[in-house]
Amino acid sequence: GAVVSQHPSRVICKSGTSVKIECRSLDFQATTMFWYRQFPKQSLMLMATSNEGSKATYEQGVEKDKFLINHASLTLSTLTVTSAHPEDSSFYICSARPMTGAADTQYFGPGTRLTVL
Amino acid sequence: AQSVTQLDSQVPVFEEAPVELRCNYSSSVSVYLFWYVQYPNQGLQLLLKYLSGSTLVKGINGFEAEFNKSQTSFHLRKPSVHISDTAEYFCAVSDPAGAAGNKLTFGGGTRVLVKP
What we know:
The complex is a heterodimer of chains A (117) and B (116). Chain A has 117 residues and is mainly β. Chain A is built from no helices and 11 strands. In chain A, 0% of the residues lie in helices and 54% in strands. In chain A, a hairpin with a 5-residue loop joins strand 5 and strand 6. Chain A is globular, with a radius of gyration of 13 Å. The N and C termini of chain A lie far apart (37 Å). The chains are: A mainly beta (117), B mainly beta (116). The A-B interface holds A 4, 6, 32, 34, 41-46, 49, 57, 91, 93, 95, 97, 103-104, 106, 108-111, 113 and B 32, 36, 41-45, 49, 51, 90, 94, 96, 100-109, 111.
């Protein structure tokens, strides 16, 4: 089956530093990737939609300059949390929509747990 | 815009007993409906989905769900649960005709705890 990986799986950083999270589709090409944020015991909230070769579309209330998204290839999207603060601590999950096949299909990565001290 | 309500935040159930997880949605357009499962510290895995056709949908691991348009519901059921079904379950909807193309809107999740 289709596999999406995320790296790192867990990261702890100091307040004020930037953290980059990678999302890769391992065995398929993805024109669209989605980035979600999940607070403890809560649901997933869509942060942005990332299309290969173009600027990401951010959801209302998500700071573009805070959460930088790059989708440079059909198998890789990155989310950079800039100048991270403790309130950015969360579980970040990406998903990827295959270039071929049903448009309703998304495959999810295992998530990245970010802890900002 | 769509919204999803999962009426139960937690459902304790004994092993081999049946379970039903309730999901209601609100939308002004036709939607696709999904159920996902999330095991601790992992991403989401698709259990089943309704796109069109038969309102009773069968998924993996013995789960099934029924789409009820008049009640705007998509409840998930399993006739006999196992300890391994302990997880968080999310109902989600997407608008297939939306400009953003199948963005998912999730419900708040239901935590299922299967007891021996």
